[in-house]
Design a protein that fits this description.
- By secondary structure, this protein is α+β, with helices and mostly antiparallel strands.
- The protein has helices at about 115-125, 130-195, and strands at about 1-10, 20-25, 30-40, 45-50, 60-65, 70-75, 80-90, 100-110.
- It folds into two domains: about 1-115, Jelly Rolls (Sandwich), CATH 2.60.120.680; about 125-200.
- The strands form two sheets. It has a four-stranded antiparallel beta sheet, with no helix packed on it. Strands 2-7-4-5 form a four-stranded antiparallel beta sheet, with no helix packed on it.
- A hairpin with a 6-residue loop joins β4 (about 45-50) and β5.
- The longest helix has about 70 residues, at about 130-195.
Amino acid sequence: MASAIKFDLPATLSVHPKRKCIHQYVPQDTMVLVLVKVSDGYNQRVGLEIFDNSLSANSYDKKRDLNGEVRLAFNTHADADISVCFTNTLHDGIQPDPKYSRVIDLEFEIGAEADDYQSLAKAEKLAPLEVELRKLEKVVQEIVDEMEYLKTREAKMRDTNESTNERVQWFSLLTLFTLIGLGTWQIFYLRRFFKRKRLID
């Protein structure tokens, strides 16, 4: 899967930099290719940080003073949202102004789209049709992996539902027996009480 986005990144003071983040969910052990194009801009420094929101909070890359085109490739370590965050800070002594901004062109390619098939075609001397078949093979493999992941998740959810259902059943039985026991005790207690007060025989 590939996605592209283009936006203006206003410059802020380096004391309080503002981040602009793009988020994308990516499964574990998936190749990700991030292509960034930064427009020219004076008195500004663009920074980039790539990380995920998993429990281990994996950091994939961190760059400062980005200019021109940058390609970053990595494999994910967990099923999580990948965040690509940008900052644009002004050089010291420069005051914020609407004219200070940089245009960011971001492409996010995941899985089969992230592989460099041109290099592969040159290395293995593949025909264009063979390259397309390799792409399709990778896409099909990703679909199979996704189906396996969904199947595993469905099994876990089913186990959780069955476990919850069993607990609710036991809790219902416990509540029922408790109510029956309290009702029986109440009847005997009231009978004894009324007999003691000689209200009934």
